[in-house]
TrEMBL record:
Residues 4-279 form the CN hydrolase domain. The active site is at E44 (proton acceptor). Belongs to the carbon-nitrogen hydrolase superfamily. Nitrilase family. This is Carbon-nitrogen hydrolase family protein. Keywords: Hydrolase. PROSITE patterns: CN_HYDROLASE (PS50263), NITRIL_CHT_1 (PS00920).
Amino acid sequence: MRSVVVSIIQQAPIHLSLNESLEKALHYGNEAAKKGAQMIVFGETWLSGYPAWLDHCPDVALWDHEPVKEAFAKLYNSSISIPGPEIQKFQQLAKKKKIVICLGANEVRKTGKGNGTVYNALLTINADGQLVNHHRKLMPTYTEKMLYGQGDGKGLKSVDTEYGRVSGLICWEHWMPLSRQALHDSGEEIHVAVWPKVHEMHQVASRQYAFEGRCFVIAAGQMMRVKDVPDGLKLPDHLIGKPEEFLLNGGSCIIAPNGKFIMEPVFDREEILMAEINLDDIYKERMTLDVTGHYARDDVFDFKVKRKRKV
């Protein structure tokens, strides 16, 4: 039996504070490894926080609005570069603890072309400490376009790791049929789905992905409170005076290749979530559906992926 113990770190980062978030991530990564985790997942832009204020603060789309420009500057300054010292810390942790780490992060290029653009990135580090995949979200969703640049197809693939073949998508990339097919074609066994929060429709997307791809899905949600909204941004009336109310409340879950929950969604609490999966279950389910094999029609459809990095 090829079993893997997976963990989701459903803990809030220190919003837009890179050093404090890094310290917290490494702490909980160590704690999960002590509990026996072999693969550890952090949610969308965990380092250093998802900009949920885009969905709640009424003035964010005003042109030349100084509070939003200041919030963007904080987002930029709390983002990581790749390669860089922050990602090296995760590489060292992965190698020391013999764990695979999947990390959502805000990323910037600090030098050269495109060094004013932030990318929504998903990084996969193998148990030997090597960064084996670096994916940038293809299409920022709705208001995210004010903050993030478009990614590319370079990271749109599955990679071999110590504990199975791993792929990943970010948020609404799961509604892009060709993104899904690209990863299915690359032979995934474990799929990492990172979200701001895994509410009902995101559960639908995650379960559908598991069923379609006949793979395990690790769906990781974020935690964020009203008090984490950057200073200067106007709150809607229903959030004023409620600093501890959740804007993002987790919902992390783990789904089997038949689309059923192995671990039901967990909301409204911060913790290290753990579950064991058996990779042999994948191939039992592919008897009836294999969208890369007997349920594919290469004689009817042509499909290719351009895997060139933009910048």
